[in-house]
Design goal:
Strand content: 15-25%
Distance between the termini: 52 Å
Radius of gyration: 22 Å
Oligomer: single chain
CATH architecture of the largest domain: 3-Layer(aba) Sandwich
Number of domains: 2
CATH superfamily of the largest domain: Periplasmic binding protein-like II
Structural class: alpha/beta
Number of strands: 18
Number of helices: 19
Helix content: 25-40%
Strand order of the largest sheet: 2-1-3-15-4
Largest sheet: 5 strands, mixed
Length: about 475
């Protein structure tokens, strides 16, 4: 159903808008009172966006429910998709105008891994938000090796403690099977990162020889399972563990079928997770509409994080609706409101498990793109060595902080946001080197090949399968 809203009629070109922003910023500084949204001449007002039933689709739901899309003159329909492949395919064909995407999807499509299409993102949807869950039986075996304090496991729980279990399965002739949500998903790379840091080889891809299973030389066999199906697949014994976003780790706790052993916050602190993706063709045809969408989603992200997450309970109520995530309020709230439950009854404070706005979470950093590309190379999805320059060029084709900053400046000009909410104008798109990984290896996005050379497990330099 279309929400009521104002249709913007007054025409402004992108060039004139950018000029007015710069002049206004120089002359008056930050505005203190809200003004009406810039009346962009929208190329398209009726839009359909896709999402997967995960809590990190929240910026889309909030932009709709709080009227931020309406404020921009946009009439938006949000539609849940069956899986990540269908979602991507529908963005490519134009059935969807844009979608909640795995951060690796625009990159994978643009370089032609799996599907060939130029997809871009001008908005990062969140940081963190995933976990790795093990079946009760595997956890009982792991637990024997995990250090305890005051009767509780000491976190973070490394894959070192899973290794004896995997070796036992191998000795018994049983493949150790785990689930992740898509070959270019954060979940795939985080699960592989965690396993490899514990000496468990997660396997290689070899697309040049037609092998897209990702199980070559693997100690643990990873396969795709759609997020909402993870708990049932674990319960059926088809897989022994999985990496997925919320609420499907907490669902395993509530159902009593598994134990989340680690979050991605503990694997890579404040890692980028989902993005909002559109086709390059769509973005080129609808530049003002794209700006309006990004503006609305930035406002939604801020609402989700403002005043120390004060709005999270309301957000959980919205997300629990069947048209969004559809899980019970208590299940979503378990992680969305600043806590995370590992073993049943072992609930711990984790206020940054879901981050939507703080730490410049919405800014599409080139270095985030580079990290995903390094992991694609590490595991063979990029089968041949690429120079550092290739990583930079590819990141800049896909991640578009220039569009993001146009939207940000409009919001500042309108008095809806502060200049301090956003990176400085001279931001180069690269985060400072990050060292808070579970294996303590530092990532510098400007030196991808040097980064790859540091891993004991994984392809590097001229390695070929």
């Amino acid at each position: 159903m279309r929400k009521s809203g104002k249709t913007w009629l007054q025409a402004f070109s992108l060039k004139s808008i950018a000029k007015s922003i710069l002049i206004g910023a120089a002359a008056t500084g930050m505005m203190t009172a809200p003004v009406h949204a810039e009346e962009l001449e929208l190329e398209k007002e009726d839009l359909k966006f896709g999402f997967i039933k995960l809590t990190d689709m929240a910026p889309l739901a909030i932009a709709y429910e709080k009227g931020y899309f309406e404020d921009e003159g946009l009439y938006v329909t949000l539609e849940a998709q069956a899986n990540w492949k269908i979602l991507l395919d529908r963005v490519i064909t134009g059935e969807l105008d844009g979608a909640h995407m795995l951060a690796g999807q625009p990159l994978g499509a643009t370089i032609g891994f799996g599907t060939q299409a130029h997809i871009i993102t001008a908005f990062s949807m969140d940081l963190n938000g995933n976990g790795i869950t093990m079946s009760n039986a595997v956890w009982e075996e792991m637990k024997k090796h995990v250090p305890h304090k005051d009767g509780k496991p000491v976190h973070p729980i490394k894959a070192d403690y899973l290794k004896p279990v995997v070796e036992k399965y191998k000795a018994e002739g049983k493949p150790f099977k785990m689930g992740m949500v898509f070959p270019v998903s954060t979940h795939n790379y985080e699960l592989r990162y965690w396993l490899a840091a514990g000496g468990i080889h997660p396997g290689y891809y070899n697309p040049t020889k037609g092998d897209t299973s990702g199980t070559l030389q693997a100690d643990a066999l990873l396969s795709v399972t759609p997020p909402p199906q993870m708990p049932a697949t674990l319960e059926a014994g088809t897989i022994y563990g999985y990496c997925v976003g919320e609420p499907w780790n907490q669902q395993a706790v509530f159902k009593g079928i598994g134990v989340p052993v680690i979050t991605d916050y503990e694997i890579w602190k404040d890692n980028p997770e989902k993005v909002f993706g559109v086709s390059k063709k769509w973005a080129d045809a609808n530049p003002n509409t794209h700006l309006a969408v990004v503006k609305a989603m930035i406002r939604a992200a801020k609402w989700l994080d403002e005043e120390n997450n004060k709005n999270r309970k309301e957000a959980v109520k919205i997300l629990s609706q069947p048209n969004y995530v559809g899980a019970d309020y208590e299940v979503i709230a378990n992680s969305m409101t600043g806590t995370f439950e590992y073993e049943k009854g072992d609930k711990r404070s984790l206020p940054d498990f879901n981050v939507f706005f703080r730490y410049y979470a919405t800014y599409p950093y080139y270095s985030d793109a580079v990290w995903y590309l390094t992991q694609m190379r590490r595991w063979g999805q990029i089968p041949e060595h690429k120079p550092d320059s290739w990583y930079m060029e590819t990141a800049k084709k896909v991640y578009r902080p220039d569009i993001y900053m146009q939207a940000a400046k409009l919001l500042v000009k309108e008095g809806k946001m502060s200049a301090a909410d956003f990176p400085a104008d001279d931001e180069d798109g690269f985060r400072a080197p990050q060292s808070e990984f579970i294996d303590n290896i530092t990532f510098d996005g400007t030196k991808p090949n040097e980064y790859l050379s540091k891993f004991p497990i994984g392809l590097k330099e001229s390695d070929k399968l």
